[in-house]
Structures are given as structure tokens and as C-alpha cells.
Amino acid sequence: MRTGSEPTTARSPLRLRLWLSVWGLIWAGTGTATFALAGRPGWAVACGVLMLIVTIDLFMVLRHIHQGPHYQPGRDIPPYEPDHGGRSPRPGR
Length: 93
Known about the structure:
Elements: H1 14-37, H2 41-66
Helix pairs in contact: 1-2
């Protein structure tokens, strides 16, 4: 049941998040290596922690993409019926 408030061409942002995570992973890895070689252990640890967070996000995005249309619905998947709190969606039903 469409309410009319959502665009019919909306798509999941998972592919964008995937490529942004790859980009962030490259930069965080480069930053970790560069700061470690430059003798800046504090910045190297900060970039390493950021690289760990980006890696976790990358795996979560890949997991959601591989789970299929439940997380990434296409045009042929109708939206879920909204929860009406245990009541009928229309009065008088």
C-alpha cells in the first residue's frame, strides 16, 4: 500500500555506502601507514581505529546487499503495510 508520500523511484543507498567505505578504507590505510612511517603513533592509531570502523561498516553493507530485496527493494517489491498499532487502518472496519 503506497501512501503517496514516498517517491516511486527511491533506491537503497547501499551501493553508495559500499563505494564510500572502499574509498575511506583506502585513505585510512594510507594514513595509518604514512603516520606510522613518519613517527606519529597517535595519528597512526587514530587512522587505524578509523580503518577498523570503516571495515566493519563495509562488511555490514556487503551483508545487507547479499541479503537481497528485503533490504534493497526494487520496483517489483511492494512496500510493507504500515503498523496501525493493532487497530484497523480505517475506522469502521
